[in-house]
Specification:
Layout lengths: L1 H21 L6 H15 L3 H30 L5 H4 L3 H11 L4 H25 L9 H17 L11 H8 L1
Length: about 170
Amino acid sequence: MTLIKLASMLLLALVFAEDLRHRAVHWALFPLLLITLAIPAMREQPFGAWAASAVLNAGFVVLQLGAGLALVMLRQGQWRAPFTHLIGLGDVLFLLVVACGLSTERFIPYYVTGLIATLLGHLLLRWSRPSAAPTVPTAGLLALWLAGWIALEQLGVLGALHRGAFAHSLLVHG
């Protein structure tokens, strides 16, 4: 399992480097990352618990994106294609991949703290390199944030990122 976690961290480092350099992530990294994040989650808990967490996490991402899109449309009074003007498709795919690898108890704090860290990282990047692109490398900075969480998990500071009872309890006890 440690090798899979190391592979995840390596892939996350590649996502970070590519997004920072090109403001894009190579498509081949997404399925590889999905495999390395989902294997531990699927191996160490019942399939139903894993699926419930993945669906809840993905639903949370879709809800956030839908609310953000609705807010922008209301403020601007017109429809704008979200993946060309508002957020990168790679950012959304990255979040959906991560949603499949973390329990709901870990995903929501990761997502919220990751977005805060991403904004701070972007401000630091713009301050240190004023010539840097004005776009936010969201997937890359979130990948770096997740790599840190996985490292903390492997050091025993954080509990398992893929185990949790919330989604399973919600599914069973509704």
